[in-house]
Amino acid sequence: MTYKNYPMVSRVVFGRGSFNQLDEILAPKRKGRNAPFIFYVDDVFKGNHWLTSRISLSYNDKIIYIPTNEEPKTSQIDQLVEDIILEYSELPSGIIGIGGGIVMDVAKAVSLMLTNKGQSKDYQGWDLIKNPAIYHVGIPTISGTGAEVSRTTILTGPVRKLGINSDHTPFDQVILDPELTKDVPTNQWFYTGMDCFVHCVESLNGTYLNAFSQSYGEKAFELCQEIFLEDHLSKEESQDKLMMASWHGGMSIAYSQVGVAHAMSYGLGYLLGVKHGIGNCIVFDHLEDYYPEGVAMFKKMKEKHGIELPQGICADLTDAQFNTMIDVALSLEPLWENAIGKNWKTKITRDVLLKLYKKM
Ligand code: NAD
Ligand code: ZN
User: Fold this and answer.
1) Does residue 136 contact residue 177 with C-beta atoms inside 8 Å?
2) How large is the average pLDDT for residues 209-222?
3) Which of 18, 96, 156, 220 has the fewest CB atoms inside 10 Å of its own CB, making it the most exposed?
């Protein structure tokens, strides 16, 4: 048995208003006048003075707004990398991603592809990256995915939706400022928050569970219960705690794996473009046979916050389309092995998945 030697984020700052320290954190990392800092910022913050006025640009530093209606594609990453190479004479001093999972994943992927030849699609998989990335910083503005701690950046490529998983993927620096999440709309808060809840349920009920994952997973699970089911937290406390739940949930799956909801949600994402958070919710709502307690709790949370999930999104699909989703879901073997056990293939047949997808 070889145990994973897991890379972690090297530095992290936590606290309301800690975003104000960005400048002083970046200053020592500047490599020169011609080596800019590139800030990828969620385009929801375009014109939002409260946030953008605190990003100070020197020399040829630049803010690039990233649209978040679709999840990142390998072609988009390659284009962003090319834009940088064409515009500047030197490699950037750093890449800073300010936003949700999408923008953080874009920042990670660009920082990797600036120092690794070829196209990003060729690096989708495990440990294909050869050279260390450019210095990269993650600043979440919505909590739940755990993208701020993970060693992956999830990309949709021409043939697969799969992360670039590598020791060089984790951020060199993360700034956790819960105040940045104050304007997240309720539905999105719920979907992305539930990504964290589902990470915990899948990790804690998986066959890969170990004391490392369990200790993080239990803490995150407890925080999610407090945030989504209890009434005693102030808005600020709730934001602070969800940011830490996301972190712990990410740490929990780092050393284990996700499960049924994620495998099936990838199928929905690949075929229909359903986004990660809401996709997990749509699937998880039907997984009472696999995660009875987690699903019961999820339904309570949904009700408490008046969330109505889209229904019938698979109603008009063709057999070929169902088959595509089933192929994508089944290809994620470690997720099934974690969820069901080594003999998962005897239990998870195409027919089982078809029946589940037809309910969604
Ligand atoms: P997101 O990045 O898709 O953003 C969701 C929405 O929230 C967007 O419309 C965005 O504009 C908005 N938003 C973000 N911050 C806001 C704020 N402060 N105020 C108002 N609106 C705000 O959301 P997400 O759920 O964080 O990320 C999903 C993405 O993360 C997917 O692409 C998924 O594949 C990826 N992901 C990555 C990992 C990883 O480990 N790398 C893990 C899970 C998910
Ligand atoms: Zn997830």
Assistant:
1) no
2) 98
3) 18
**Distances, alpha carbon 64 to alpha carbons 39, 77, 83, 318, in Å:** 6, 13, 11, 39
pLDDT range class, residue 269, cuts 50, 70, 90? very high
4 assigned to some structural domain: no
Angstrom distance (rounded) from CA 313 to CA 278: 12
CA of residue 192 to ligand 2 center, whole Å: 8
Question: What distance in Å separates the CA atoms of residue 52 and residue 304, rounded to the nearest whole number?
Answer: 34
Pocket test for ligand 1, best of 154, 195, 242 (most atoms within 8 A of CB): 154
pLDDT tens for each residue of 143-172: 999 999 999 999 999 888 889 999 999 999
Helical H runs in the chain?
A: 22-26, 49-52, 74-87, 101-113, 186-204, 211-229, 235-254, 260-272, 276-284, 292-304, 319-330, 333-340, 344-347, 350-359
Please name the residues in contact with 138: beta carbons below 8 A apart, sequence gap of 6 or more: 9, 97, 104, 107, 108, 147, 148, 171, 173, 174, 175
Clarify whether residues 233 and 165 are in a common domain.
no
Q: Which amino acid is residue 3, in one-letter code?
A: Y
Residues 128 and 94 in one domain: yes
Q: Domain range holding 65?
A: 11-181
Q: Are 231 and 250 in contact (CB under 8 A)?
A: no
Is the CB of 276 within 6 Å of ligand 1?
yes
Contact 179 CB / ligand 1 (< 6 Å): no
Q: What angle do CA 47, 92, 123 make, to 5 degrees?
A: 100
CATH of the domain at 274: 1.20.1090.10
Q: Is the CB of 99 under 6 A from ligand 1?
A: yes
Q: Do 172 and 203 reside in the same domain of the chain?
A: no
| 111-146: pLDDT as tens digits | 999 999 999 999 999 999 999 999 999 999 999 999
